[in-house]
Design a protein that fits this description.
Number of strands: 6
Helix content: 25-40%
Number of domains: 1
Strand content: 25-35%
Radius of gyration: 24 Å
CATH architecture: 2-Layer Sandwich
CATH class: Alpha Beta
Structural class: alpha/beta
Number of helices: 3
CATH topology: Double Stranded RNA Binding Domain
Shape: elongated
Length: 172
C-alpha cells in the first residue's frame, strides 16, 4: 500500500515535470515567401543622402535591414543579383518644432527619417515597387538632440525596416 502511494506520487511528479517542460512557441514573422521559387535576397548598402546627417544612421539601417531578412526568412543573402533585391537611400533626416510653450519657446521637437526603397522581385515583377518609408519620434525640447539621437534613430529605423520587410515579403 505504501509502495502504491509512492508509485502514484512519482507518476504524478513525472507528469507534472513533462507538462511543465513541454512548451509550444510560434513566431509569426509575416513573411509569405515561396521558397521553391525565391531562394536569395540582395540588399545594396543604403546611402545617407539627407541634407542633415548623423554618421551612424546608414550603418544602423543597413545592419537592421540585413538582420531582418536573415532572422525572419530562410533566404540566402547574396552580394547582388538576388531573387529579391532591395536598394535605396536615406532621403531626409529632419527635426522640427512641434509645439510652442507659453513663453514662446519650443517645448516638443519631432525627429523624422525618410528612406526611399526600390524593391525588385525577379521571380514576380508585379510585386516590384519604389516607395518612401518614414518614421517620427518626439522628444522634449529641454533635451539635446545628442542625448536622445541614438535611441530615437534606432527606434525609427526598426519601424522603417519592419515596414519595408512587410511591404517586400508579407503579401497578405
Amino acid at each position: 500500500m505504501v509502495l502504491n502511494k509512492g508509485i502514484k506520487g512519482a507518476a504524478a511528479l513525472l507528469v507534472a515535470l513533462l507538462l511543465s517542460a513541454c512548451t509550444v512557441t510560434y513566431k509569426f514573422t509575416g513573411a509569405s515567401i515561396d521558397y521553391e521559387k525565391v531562394k536569395t535576397v540582395s540588399i545594396a548598402p543604403f546611402q545617407n543622402r539627407a541634407a542633415y546627417q548623423w554618421a551612424p544612421m546608414a550603418a544602423i539601417l543597413n545592419d537592421e535591414m540585413s538582420n531582418a531578412f536573415v532572422q525572419q526568412t530562410k533566404l540566402q543573402q547574396v552580394a547582388r543579383g538576388g531573387d529579391l533585391n532591395l536598394e535605396g537611400e536615406i532621403t531626409s533626416y529632419d527635426q522640427v518644432n512641434k509645439s510652442i510653450s507659453s513663453d514662446g519657446y519650443s517645448s516638443l521637437v519631432q525627429l523624422k527619417i525618410t528612406v526611399n526603397v526600390r524593391f525588385t522581385n525577379n521571380k514576380n515583377h508585379d510585386e516590384d515597387f519604389e516607395r518612401q518609408f518614414s518614421a517620427t519620434r518626439d522628444y522634449d525640447a529641454t533635451q539635446s538632440l545628442d542625448s536622445v539621437q541614438e535611441e530615437l534613430v534606432t527606434q525609427m529605423i526598426d519601424e522603417i525596416v519592419e515596414s519595408v520587410f512587410n511591404a517586400a515579403v508579407a503579401n497578405w
